[in-house]
């Protein structure tokens, strides 16, 4: 059943030319150099320090590491981080 549902979602996405993240719950990350990061479709913040930010998504966890990390903006589904970003890691 899950396989059929996934195929239907893929077909709807393709037919209506929608971005995959709008149907599948995928997240989008945009970086501006190594100083700014914007993320859409996150679920929750699991850890936040000046050196590490752990973000839960529907599919996995995104870990951002660096120095002087500041959560500049946070909405229900998006966030913006600024600082000296060194590593972006994806964990299952």
CATH class group: Mainly Beta
Work out the helicity level: 10-25%
Global shape: elongated
β-sheet strand percentage: over 45%
Question: Major beta sheet, specifics?
Answer: 6 strands, antiparallel
Question: Largest beta sheet: what is the strand line-up?
Answer: 1-2-6-5-4-3
**Overall number of strands:** 6
Order of helices and strands, N to C? HHEEEEEE
Radius of gyration: 15 Å
Query: What is the rounded distance between the termini?
Result: 23 Å
Count the helices. How many?
Answer: 2
CATH level-3 fold name: Immunoglobulin-like
In CATH, the architecture is: Sandwich
Question: Can you give a write-up of this model?
Answer:
It is a single chain. The protein is α+β, with helices and mostly antiparallel strands and 92 residues long. It has a single domain (25-91), classed as Immunoglobulin-like, CATH 2.60.40. It is built from two helices and six strands. A hairpin with a 3-residue loop joins strand 5 (61-74) and strand 6 (78-91). The longest helix has 14 residues, at 2-15. It is elongated, with a radius of gyration of 15 Å. The two termini are 23 Å apart.
């Amino acid at each position: 059943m899950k396989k059929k549902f996934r195929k239907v979602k893929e077909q709807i996405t393709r037919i209506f030319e929608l971005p995959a993240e709008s149907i599948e719950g995928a997240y989008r990350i945009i970086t501006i150099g190594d100083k700014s990061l914007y993320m859409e479709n996150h679920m929750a913040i699991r850890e936040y320090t000046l050196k590490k930010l752990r973000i839960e998504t529907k599919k996995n966890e995104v870990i951002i590491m660096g120095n002087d990390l500041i959560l500049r903006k946070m909405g229900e589904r998006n966030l913006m981080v600024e600082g000296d970003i060194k590593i972006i890691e994806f964990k299952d």
